[in-house]
Structures are given as C-alpha cells and as structure tokens.
Design a protein that fits this description.
0% strand; 206 residues; rod-shaped; mainly alpha; f41 fragment of flagellin, N-terminal domain
Amino acid sequence: MAKKRVGWAVAACLAVVCLIATSASTSPSTSSDYASWASAIGTIAAVFTAVWATFAAEERQRDDALRAARITSVLVAGLCTRLKERVEEFEARLENIHMNGAGTVQIAAEARTLEELAGPTEEQLLRISHAPGDMAVEIATALARLKHAARMLSPQELQRLGANDHERSKEGANRARVLVHSARTSLEAAIAGLNRFRKSFDSTID
C-alpha cells in the first residue's frame, strides 16, 4: 500500500513539474490565456482527484475483504481446534476397541458419534466455505474421512469382516481409526494454515 502511495505522489510531482515547465516557456499574457491556464489546471486537478478517489476506494475494499477473511480464519480455526480435540479423543477410543474389542451396542454408539462429528451445522459450514486459501478443502477432506470412518463401523461393513462379533469390532475399529487419524491430520493442516494467514495479516497491519 505504501509503495502505491509513493508512486502516486511521484506521479503528482511529475505532473506539477511538467506544468511549471510548460508555464515557464509559454507564460499567459492575456485574460484569455489566463482562463485557458485555469481551465487546464482545473482539468488536471479533477483527473488526479478522480483517480486518487478510485484508488482509495479500491484500497478500502481490499482492506475490508482482508479483515473479513481474518475474522473468518479466527472463527474457523477455533471450530477446527474443538473438532480436532474431539477427534483425538475418539481416535483413542477406537484404539482401545481395536485392542480389546467391543459389543455391537458400543460400536453403534461410536458410529453415531462419528456421524455427529462429520456433520457440522449450516452456520459452521458457511464459515468453513469462506475459509481463505485451501483451508476449506482440508476441512472438507477431514469431514469426508470422518463420514467414511462412520461407514466402516456400520453393521453392513462389519458383517463382511468375519463371523465373530468381538473380532469384527476390533478390525472395524482399526479401519475406522486409520481414517480418523487422517482426518485429524487434515484438521491440523487447516489450523496451521489459518493461523499463518492470521499472522501474515497482522504483520501487514503492524
């Protein structure tokens, strides 16, 4: 922004220099000449003012858009951090099931929890969709993997893993755990990107 202001200031100075040089070589001598000079100066001033006003308006719009993006990044980063914490807890539960097995009731409850984690509210989805850069893609990827993990714990999928409920739950939890871990990695990447964006914006303001 500062460089552009300097550029405009230099351009203004050059215009003034040219005007002075021209006036020195052809000084007005009659009232008509003075009127022409006044008109020329007025035209130059009007053009310069119009260009400057356009530039200032564009700069304000850009600043407003950046501030809105910063606010969005802070809100989405908070949302992702809370989701990541819940995903970490769930990942630990899946690890326990993988090691020790679980009954069908517990597996069904875990599948419902995964579906809830993968289904943010409409307001949250709107915020996520406006996340700057490729962070929205990272978050969407994480949510898709959580949904896939929930399907891994569905009765239909577990039925394919053998005849023993105990062993099926262990294998299903292991498969879901891999997806949940991948989802957590995507969320961490999104949080890091959002924080970098916020810090870079703050540094430009400072």
